[in-house]
């Protein structure tokens, strides 16, 4: 992970906004199940440090005995007491008490913030979060061009259209539902998450109550007993359609009819329900077996003026408000005139490609996930698009075949997963010689690696646009425009 020394934050002016704030208490778990952590606290050394900058994950950087500490929740310019844990060459640190507070520090609006770990930046003002993300992208993209100002979100809450709740039992054997704590499979009970769709959290709450009042048991990862592992809820933010996916450890669903009836009565806005069976001992949420309990098994939503059908297992951008800005910029960077052949690589349900098809001669989409490709084909028909084709397969292999056949493409739009693309894909793009490449990424660190490859092989980065798709978290989206030199 790359780190930065200074982020140009204004240092606090000896006027602590909120000094002597203790973080030890908040860091302790509510349900006393974090024994590992309290054991660790016994072996901690307390040190006073000053924060000099932030890592790309938003952790404060501080020096201690010649070592670089990465301290979650610490901000540049702050003086603080930290607990340091050393095991062999590994050094971890946690914030104990802020002595001098930075101007950017705010009280996190979420009561679960210090335990949950789903968000990492709620202790920073929204402006400071934007500055942090801008500087992350600016620093990473220094070898290329100065990025544009980040596209921020006016209301940086309630934005997620997908929420995922895990169920379990607490030490009193009561049903709890919430999110896993950071780096653990310990469930932090949460009723309402500030970045989730509020309706989705209400439905998860109803489900928890249902379990309390019936024999439906949460699945226990240690004993392998119980039924319900998670619930995944997808919301069409424009259409209002809602999908509820129960992820269970068994396909034997006793009381299925009663369950569907109860949930629909409480939430008539649910338009479809599915049972997904995941019997594997895995941290992957969804299994392969899927049964529709009610409705059509998909939801539909509107994005950029087009209608998209979305399956349970298909990827769909989680922040539609910002996605419209992101896609708008990506299409602008593609410079389409109506004559181009465009490749939409890692196309998901075909969203970018179908938006691009309105300004291109032809669009070819490729995507690994079978359900997403089916959605893309359906979405093409649903929107009356005649000039787009979607194929299922590995994007790298697909591009290699295109290059070997000597196919032509004018523009490649690529939007790989967090791990970025691979050499098979990139080397074939270089052989195809598209005039422009638009690289959309949710991980600028892997994007930089891939941009370097493309730049070494004949391309020039002409523009970079950061977009805040994930407010309150350290994640940032970045879209880059590359042009073929000569
Ligand atoms: C970040 S998503 C982008 C999807 C789409 N462009 C969008 O904006 O909704 C990345 C997509 O790449 C797909 N994917 C992952 N690895 C792949 C591979 N090797 N080849 C093709 N598609 C892949 C995933 O299934 C996912 O749909």
TrEMBL record:
GO terms for molecular function: 4 iron, 4 sulfur cluster binding; rRNA (uridine-C5-)-methyltransferase activity. S-adenosyl-L-methionine binds at residues 317, 346, 367, 415. Keywords: 4Fe-4S, Iron, Iron-sulfur, Metal-binding, Methyltransferase, S-adenosyl-L-methionine, Transferase. Residues 1-16 have a biased composition (Basic residues). Residues 1-49 are annotated as: Disordered. One of its GO terms (biological process) is rRNA base methylation. It comes from the Bacteria. The active site is at residue 442. The keyword 4Fe-4S applies. Belongs to the class I-like SAM-binding methyltransferase superfamily. RNA M5U methyltransferase family. This is 23S rRNA (Uracil(1939)-C(5))-methyltransferase RlmD. The lineage of its organism: Bacteria, Bacillati, Bacillota, Bacilli, Bacillales.
